[in-house]
Amino acid sequence: KIKYQGQKGAMAGIPATADAMGLLSSPDEALLAKIETGATHPKVERSEAAYANNSSRFSTADTAMKADAFRTQFAQIYYMRLTQMTKSLRAAAASRWGCGTAGNPRQIDRLLEVTPGERCAIIGTVYKEMSLKPNILDEHHAREKYEAPPPSRSKYHSPDDTLVLEDQSGRVALMPSEKFPAGELVTGVVMAVLGHETVSGEFEVEDVCFHMPGPQPQLPADAPDDVYVALISGLCIGESTGDTMLPLQMFIDYVSGELGSVGEQVHAAKIARVVIAGNVIELVERDAEDVAAYKQRGLEAKTVGHMRELDDALAQLTSAVPVDLMSGVNDPSNLTVPQQPMHRCMFPRSASSTLLCGVTNPYDFSVHGTTFLGTSGQGVDDIYKFSSAEDRTKILASTLEWGHLFPTAPDTLPCFPFFKQDPFVIDNTPHVFFAGNQPSYSSEIVVGPTGQQTRVICVPTFATTKTAVMVNTRTLVPYPISFGVSDGSDMEEA
Asked: Reduced to 3 states, what is the DSSP secondary structure of residue 253?
């Protein structure tokens, strides 16, 4: 079965349900008439769209930069982040609070220059003091005393957490208020704060503002027809996800035009690109740990078999459509963000195709003039753990508002030690902003202060939801499509 969810009318002519035992839908009257009269089967051609990869800033291939980077402290990336975003934050503070004009709060350049009792605006980087935050020293002491390490948690937020704002000159503790979303903030967010310093030395917060979104290119007004980008993540190919292979094969057949009626093939042909947003194989820990060492020599690592299955799937998919492959936390790539493309030698079958493109995580690209920016989901997952926020769509929208892809890096999220710039700062507002490997599908439109509209999408894990997301590059309307096998009795009209 194939189930089209939400966004009624997004793909006109496609049925809401489909049966895997035969055609996805019954042929329409016009098609039957053509067959009876011996008319030629209509030719279906794949849509083509202009494509550009704009992710060069996420590449760490420069060996000279690597050699210099690992000699520096991580404090440098925080300094570059604050430096890059200060100008935009000053403009945001001037627009919101009138800073710099007579009769309005004064903009303070350095935190140590704040005068107690004076209403002013300050800019700095948030540090969140968390009592439940994992500490490597606590784990080390537990091992020395033969004690159990602190238990892992799904959330490390607590009501006792406190916030500090700091710049290159010093730091000041922030007093929360009703307008101040202290629980939703995380370490690494750069923001402007309006308020005054109290006699106790704390800064009483009245209001906050964040990075002003950058310019956004206009959507192409002369688009002759709808063009789609398919987003899929979390294939998690492996032993524990065997039930994923049939839905994955159905997805491949659907995109390739080998599944469904002619009408559905016409719509599938409008998919100009497929983006796989990380976690293509399941996480394998301590491979062959239960096998004696002398027996491991002739064994094949589980990861090798999983990658072979992935290669076979990619070989089928790239025979029909361009595929962009991002890395995730489960995949054989570097753990630190930005993750680099997986090496082509891992894909002996599909690597020969020019339609397979290994890309970085994060990934910045454009299709048909529509700009996309997305990750494999590490940033959203990390913010979820270290904040009070529960709605992952809101978390994704917050990262756009904060102007940073991974604000918690390098504090709780491993990242490359950049020292010349912070490439994760969002300078330009994308049309589509997505995060892969999320528990479920969700989406909303985020409107910027100057009218920018961005479609934010949580792309679900395919291994658990059997769902991919199609995005219309002309209208920015997404629709999820689920694949599975049943007798059709559990299918409902979307």
From this structure: helix
Q: pLDDT per residue over 177-210, tens digit each?
A: 777 778 999 999 999 999 999 999 999 999 999 9
For strand 171-175 and strand 190-197, is the pairing parallel, antiparallel, or unpaired?
unpaired
Amino acid at 455: R
Say which residues have a Cβ less than 8 Å from residue 51's Cβ, sequence separation at least 6.
Answer: 272, 273, 322, 365, 366, 367
Pairing of strands 356-358, 370-375: unpaired
3-state secondary structure of 375: strand
Query: In angstroms, how far apart are the furthest CA atoms of the chain?
Result: 90
- Of 407, 406, 383, 403, which Cα lies nearest the Cα of 393? 383
Cα–Cα distance, 446 to 435 (Å, whole number):
15
CA–CA gap between residue 203 and residue 173 (Å, rounded):
6
**Contacts of residue 237, Cβ cutoff 8 Å, sequence gap at least 6:** 244, 245, 248, 280, 281, 282, 306, 309, 310, 313
Helix, strand, or coil here: 396? helix
Burial of 255 (0-12, 13-18, 19+ CB in 10 A): buried
The pLDDT assigned to 388 comes to: 95
Which three-class secondary structure state does DSSP give residue 46? coil
Q: Report the pLDDT value the prediction gives residue 24, as an integer from 0 to 100.
A: 45
Cα–Cα distance between 212 and 205 in angstroms, integer? 20
Query: Is residue 217 within 8 Å of 369, Cβ to Cβ?
Result: yes
The model's pTM: 0.89
> What does the chain come to in residues?
494
Token representation of residue 303: 């990861």
* SS3 call for 493: coil
Nearest in space to 121 (alpha carbons), one of 102, 139, 108, 136: 108
Q: What value, to the nearest 5°, has the Cα angle with vertex 267 and ends 262 and 273?
A: 130
